[in-house]
Amino acid sequence: MKIIIIGAGGVGFYLAQRLALENKEVIVIDKNTDAVKRVAENIDAQTIVGSGGSPRVLKEAGLSKADIFLAVTNSDEANITACTVANIISPATKKIARIRNADFDAFHQNLMQYAPHIDTIINPETEVVNTIERLFRVPGAIEVNEFAKGKIKFIGVRLKENSRLSGLKLIDIASEIGDKSLLIAGIIREERLIIPTGQDRLKQGDLIYFISEEKRLAETMSLFDKYTRPSLKAMIIGGGNIGLKLAERLENKGLSPKLVEIDKKRALFLAEKLNKTIVLQGAGSDMELLAEENISDMDMVVTVTGDEETNILSSLLAKKMGVYKAITRIDRFDYFTLMPALGIDQVVSERVSAIDSILKYIRKGKVISAVSIKGETAEVLEAEALATSAIVGKPLKKASVPRGALIIGILREDQVIIPSGETVINPGDRIIIFATKEALPRVEKILTVKLEFF
């Protein structure tokens, strides 16, 4: 697969890095010489210094043979222009544009009407807000993902020291708790992913990923001594695009969050823009300010400034002052492994959101959605089962499911099925697959045609 990326900034760099690791043919174009040099020195990708809206540059990059064209610069106008020119040169290439317009929802509708040559619009900032909103609804979780029209939840929780599940083998859990429907898909232990068998034991401190029907989520969370009481009192630290969108989202749900913004001019703008939000001008690391605003009464603090160190410090300070949960925005992946040791589990990332937005267009087969788990460690894919697939029409215990992959959920019409070894997948079923990065190429094959064809 050949992919052209316009923009070598933070999002473009990470996309190029991730896709190159999957042995995709990646070409990165940017006008900034230093940004292009950084890509060339760190990533196995072809680089070109130039404008993504230049027909000459795009032809030089071999656009006519590209499968996907990603325009992810920091300029909406540049991304739209690049996609417009790309469509003239190669209409068959799928074009994806990053748009950061503050009025994204209305803008999205108008843009798709007047610029139908752009196949998909992604907005990583909006996806970060969506992620935070899901965490608000299930504050006991480390990660919350939704599949099958929201009917299937894929949840990550940290196992407490005194949990009744600690020390149990997976094969013994059903008899111990009287619930046979609990399906544990993966375990992160000391930053290592385990696709568990029945003989694996759960240990305190494990990050456990499990599948649950939406209607049984509260019941399933209680098995891990976690609860689904939504957060009602929230403080947002950072009034950039993400902070503003999150405040608006919470206002629409009838909440009145507090928002801390260090820049006086921006704080005044936010105060005029927002209706129910209390806007405070100051630093999120100012203990006196936080104490005055009764931060210990907050259910959740969300730190989403543009500075990662500020976000980490503010989150640690908030937790020390009595906040139940802190959600921290981080984009540097070398920071991710440090967070649990610091007591910060709930992390959101604009770069992870960017790759999740495009994964379904990169994967083979009829993939409906896909999300990354723990950076590049694993993925969860939702796909339609094809009649030609090797996993259709036989019990899963006899199906050709690759090592390192697990079928964790099925949606058949409106029926949610948590599968066992006896479950048979029918053509047209929506299937949820948890897979390590090593297993992904073979997972893609079973989503297309029978393995014996290869």
Could you explain the architecture of this structure?
- The protein is of the alpha/beta class and 454 residues long.
- The chain has 4 domains: 2-122, Rossmann fold, CATH 3.40.50.720; 144-223, Regulator of K+ conductance, C-terminal domain (Alpha-Beta Plaits); 235-346, Rossmann fold, CATH 3.40.50.720; 353-453, Alpha-Beta Plaits, CATH 3.30.70.1450.
- It has helices at 10-21, 33-42, 55-60, 76-89, 104-114, 124-137, 170-177, 217-223, 241-252, 264-273, 287-292, 308-320, 333-336, 339-342, 350-362, 440-446; strands at 2-6, 25-30, 46-49, 68-71, 94-98, 120-122, 143-147, 152-158, 183-189, 192-194, 207-213, 234-237, 258-261, 278-281, 300-303, 325-329, 346-348, 367-373, 378-384, 405-412, 415-417, 430-436.
- It has a 6-stranded parallel sheet with strand order 3-2-1-4-5-6, sandwiched between helices.
- A hairpin with a 4-residue loop joins strand 7 and strand 8.
- Helix 1 packs across helix 15, helix 6 (124-137) crosses helix 9 and helix 6 packs across helix 15 (350-362).
- The two termini are 18 Å apart.
- 43% of the residues are buried.
SSE layout and pairing:
Layout (H helix, E strand, L loop, with lengths): L1 E5 L3 H12 L3 E6 L2 H10 L3 E4 L5 H6 L7 E4 L4 H14 L4 E5 L5 H11 L5 E3 L1 H14 L5 E5 L4 E7 L11 H8 L5 E7 L2 E3 L12 E7 L3 H7 L10 E4 L3 H12 L5 E4 L2 H10 L4 E4 L5 H6 L7 E4 L4 H13 L4 E5 L3 H4 L2 H4 L3 E3 L1 H13 L4 E7 L4 E7 L20 E8 L2 E3 L12 E7 L3 H7 L8
Parallel strand pairs: 1-2, 1-4, 2-3, 4-5, 5-6, 12-13, 12-15, 13-14, 15-16, 16-17
Antiparallel strand pairs: 7-8, 8-11, 9-10, 9-11, 18-19, 19-22, 20-21, 20-22
Helix pairs in contact: 1-15, 6-9, 6-15
